[in-house]
Amino acid sequence: MQLEGERMLVRSGRSRFSLSTLPAADFPNLDDWQSEVEFTLPQATMKRLIEATPVFYGASGRSLLLKWYAV
Question: Which residue range or ranges hold the DNA polymerase III beta sliding clamp N-terminal domain (predicted)?
Fold first, then answer.
C-alpha cells in the first residue's frame, strides 16, 4: 500500500487498486466521545446491515455504478 495525495494505491500480484481517501482530520476523535447509550447487536443482524449497505463503484472517471446488496 502506498498513499499518493488523496489516493491509496494497493498492489498485490497482478492486481492494482486506487482508492479515494479522506483526511483523518475530517472524522471525529472517538476517544473524546462519551455515549449515554450502549447496545449489542447479534452477529447475524450486523451482517445483514452490512450486506444491505449500497456500494458505489467507479465505472469511469465521470460515472458511478451503484451495486445494492440484497438482504
Answer: 2-31
